[in-house]
């Protein structure tokens, strides 16, 4: 009997050998933790579809921030639940808006913790869309108007930077949002604040639990006229290309799990740091299976996050961040 010439198993025999040849390292430095900040006082409400994730009011936020800082996670992504909503999303860009207040507080408590501000209007508009509603005079149909939305998104980004946000992360999928926001930030004196663009954001069913968490479900229609069709890959390159040309400092693919090919494609094509958003339903599915005792949560989460890095992500936005940080410390 001939011996196998190549024995792949030689490099798999011991834990030390495996770690020596390991190609991908998941680190706490890679993780960004999303927070849902709500108006009101003394609120800490668990999101029913996202066990372990809470809507928290600012007076109770300090404890959350202390926990993040203690975990070693270095960045949080802020979403706001305002007291009032209107057609233009005024609460997104007022000086004492919920995200602006939270940003100021966090920068005071933990100056080194990076605050990433999600720049969108859907949590702040009464219709729940990410841009302005415009009625087509010919058909009377409601559409999401691109260019009038840009003005409001620029105001939002500038007010977030004024409050102290370290990174602006526009998630609205309007055309030209990166250049509009870049110009707005530069004009206001925030030329050093980077833009993490949600470049490739699909119209995904995996955002369901988030819309409960952020109370941002569209009140009519859907987001398919601005977010991407899940069937398209080459279009993702066109989206990323325009963001790069418009000056995006970081690119994002969202969701992550069903779009690993897109993460890999962008990684091969562009040198900007790449972010994967491990979205709400990806989290909820793991939590539900774990609660049923069907999977080993820790192993599944670490395998998933490692897979996203292996696909090409440099950073991962994930609701598992604090747990993953603890598991990576071996606790
Ligand atoms: C806002 C926004 C959404 C998410 C992040 N920013 C929701 C949406 O587009 O409907 C989804 C995040 C998640 O599901 O975890 N536009």
UniProtKB/TrEMBL annotation:
Output the PANTHER family linked to this UniProt entry.
Answer: DELTA-AMINOLEVULINIC ACID DEHYDRATASE
Q: Where is the active site?
A: 201 (schiff-base intermediate with substrate), 254 (schiff-base intermediate with substrate)
**What pathway is this protein said to act in by its record?**
Porphyrin-containing compound metabolism; protoporphyrin-IX biosynthesis; coproporphyrinogen-III from 5-aminolevulinate: step 1/4
- Keyword check for Zinc: yes
Which coenzymes or cofactors are required? Answer: Zn(2+)
Please identify the protein, giving its name as recorded.
Answer: Delta-aminolevulinic acid dehydratase
The biological processes this protein is annotated with in GO are: protoporphyrinogen IX biosynthetic process
Its recorded reaction(s) are:
2 5-aminolevulinate = porphobilinogen + 2 H2O + H(+)
Q: Which PROSITE patterns match?
A: D_ALA_DEHYDRATASE
Amino-acid positions noted as binding Zn(2+) in the UniProt annotation, renumbered to this chain = 120, 122, 130
């Amino acid at each position: 009997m001939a011996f196998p010439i190549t024995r792949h198993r030689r490099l798999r025999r011991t834990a030390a050998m495996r770690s020596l040849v390991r190609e991908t390292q998941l680190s706490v430095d890679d993780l960004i933790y999303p927070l849902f900040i709500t108006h009101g006082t003394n609120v800490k409400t668990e999101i029913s579809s996202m066990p372990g994730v809470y809507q928290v009011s600012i007076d109770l936020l300090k404890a959350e921030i202390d926990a993040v800082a203690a975990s070693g996670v270095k960045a949080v992504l802020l979403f706001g639940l305002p007291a009032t909503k209107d057609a233009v999303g005024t609460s997104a860009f007022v000086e004492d808006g919920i995200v602006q207040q939270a940003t100021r507080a966090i920068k005071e408590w933990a100056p080194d913790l990076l605050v990433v501000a999600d720049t969108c209007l859907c949590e702040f508009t009464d219709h729940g869309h990410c841009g302005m509603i415009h009625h087509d005079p010919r058909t009377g149909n409601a559409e999401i108007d691109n260019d009038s939305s840009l003005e409001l998104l620029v105001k939002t980004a500038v007010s977030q930077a004024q409050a102290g946000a370290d990174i602006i992360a526009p998630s609205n999928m309007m055309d030209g949002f990166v250049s509009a926001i870049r110009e707005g930030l530069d004009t206001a004196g925030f030329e050093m604040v980077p833009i993490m663009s949600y470049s490739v954001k699909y119209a995904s069913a995996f955002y369901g639990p988030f819309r409960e968490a952020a109370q941002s479900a569209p009140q009519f229609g859907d987001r398919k006229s601005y977010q991407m069709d899940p069937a398209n890959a080459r279009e993702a390159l066109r989206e990323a290309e325009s963001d790069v040309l418009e000056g995006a400092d970081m690119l994002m693919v969202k969701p992550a799990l069903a779009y690993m090919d897109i993460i890999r494609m962008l990684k091969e094509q562009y040198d900007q740091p790449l972010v994967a958003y491990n979205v709400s339903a990806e989290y909820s599915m793991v939590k539900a299976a774990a609660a049923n005792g069907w999977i080993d949560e820790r192993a599944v989460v670490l395998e998933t996050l490692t897979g996203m890095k292996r696909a090409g992500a440099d950073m991962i936005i994930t609701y598992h961040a604090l747990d993953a940080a603890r598991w990576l410390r071996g606790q």
